[in-house]
Write a structure and sequence with these properties.
The protein is of the alpha/beta class. The chain has a single domain, classed as 3-Layer(aba) Sandwich (Rossmann fold), CATH 3.40.50. A seven-stranded parallel sheet has the order 3-2-1-4-5-6-7, with helices on both faces. Helix 1 links the parallel strand 1 and strand 2. Helices cover 44% and strands 14% of the residues. It is globular. The structure holds nicotinamide-adenine-dinucleotide (NAD).
Length: 260
């Protein structure tokens, strides 16, 4: 950026943005809001029908979106996602690594976590991000830059118990973000992370008991539930040109529970 154009800096209009896990929960809301703001959105979810439904809804509202069923731990599928995105829109401006195993995981003692479940969580939540970043990298480099946003969790600041694999994987997301930011800075690619607090996505609520949900907001400065829309501003900022000199950082969005 050579100057600051207030009329365009905060805009995502026309940007081509891939949202992994965009078919349900918070990723669905990122996709809808990005499209409402004029972005061209690619929903990459293993839940292919859910992604299709969200993309169709966006198009009905006059937005631009396509859904490509993608398992983020399958390198061929991730490459196909990138190839189809480029074939459709010619570039990739943003990647939001939002897909994760979370709401499907039981909460419980760390020593009871099945080893294969531990491995699956690491694969989707970490290797999936590595594969998606690796696949978009050549295009972002060739076009002169891009923005990557990795979704971590505010659990890592508090060391929240009972999903040890999940919390561990989300701490890894911050390490990946920092190290990758250094490796791709010369290519003008920004890499940042967001740590959401407990967010009342449809999927989180479906998998959380009312006892667990009750009191989630008490430790916050803003004592109210957190909703998917509370995360949209930070994500859009990190995709927009307004954040073009910010990289390797983690923005905590949890109503002021953790002070990061
Ligand atoms: N909801 C919360 O309280 C909360 C808090 C902190 C962080 N987060 C993070 O925010 C993101 C969204 O959370 P959510 O509440 O919408 O959860 P979610 O479980 O609904 O979202 C996960 C999405 O990822 C998709 N997905 C799972 N495995 C995949 C794979 N292998 N390939 C492609 N897609 C896959 C799912 O189909 C789903 O659409 C996740 O990264 C989650 O860890 C959520």
């Amino acid at each position: 950026m050579t100057g600051f154009d207030v009329n365009t800096a905060y805009s995502v209009k026309g940007k081509v943005v891939i949202v992994t896990g965009g078919g349900t929960g918070i990723g669905k809301v990122y996709s809808q809001r990005l499209a409402e703001s004029g972005a061209k959105v690619v929903l990459a979810d293993i839940a292919g029908e859910a992604g299709e439904a969200v993309a169709a809804g966006i198009r009905e509202q006059g937005g631009e979106a396509i859904a490509i069923r993608t398992d983020v731990i399958d390198p061929d599928a991730v490459q196909a996602l990138v190839d189809q995105t480029i074939a459709k829109w010619g570039r990739i401006d943003g990647l939001i690594n939002n897909a994760s195993l979370m709401s499907v995981l039981p909460r419980g003692d760390w020593f009871r976590i099945p080893i294969d479940e531990w491995d699956r969580v690491m694969a989707v939540n970490l290797k999936g991000i590595f594969l998606c970043c690796r696949a978009v990298y050549p295009q972002m480099k060739a076009q002169g830059g891009g923005r990557i946003v990795n979704i971590s969790s505010s659990r890592i600041w508090g060391g929240n118990p009972n999903r040890l694999h999940y919390t561990t994987s989300k701490a890894g997301v911050v390490g990946l973000t920092r190290a990758l930011a250094r490796e791709v800075g010369d290519d003008k690619i920004g890499v940042n992370a967001i740590t959401p607090g407990f967010t009342e996505s449809e999927t989180q609520m479906a998998s959380s008991s009312s006892n667990y949900v009750a009191g989630r907001d008490q430790g916050r400065c803003f004592k109210r539930p957190q909703f998917p829309d509370d995360l949209v501003g930070a994500v859009m900022f990190l995709i927009s040109d307004a954040s073009s000199f910010i990289t390797g950082q983690t923005i905590n969005v949890d109503g002021g529970q953790a002070m990061h």
